[in-house]
Amino acid sequence: MAAVEKRSVTIRGHRTSFSLEQPFYDDLIAIAAQRSLSLAALVAEIDETRTRDANLSSALRLYVLAWAKRGGATS
Fold first, then answer.
1. How many domains does the chain have?
2. Sign, CA torsion 39/31/61/59
3. What InterPro entries does the record tag this protein with (predicted)?
4. Is the pTM above the cut of 0.90?
5. Which of 6, 13, 36, 58 has the greatest number of C-beta atoms within 10 Å?
């Protein structure tokens, strides 16, 4: 099993961090590239749509899972 790594990003002018396993992080990078977005822009988009009772790391994992279930297609 992949180790969880903590990463930081600046979204909407403030630093925030999230913890993800490398495969999830790699997929986030691929999704951002596919959508011609920076990683920070993609994380900000996911952050804006998550429910406030879900943490950012979980929201990112769920986004990657939904993307994978669609066959890697962006919405």
1. 1
2. positive
3. RHH_dom, RHH_sf
4. no
5. 58
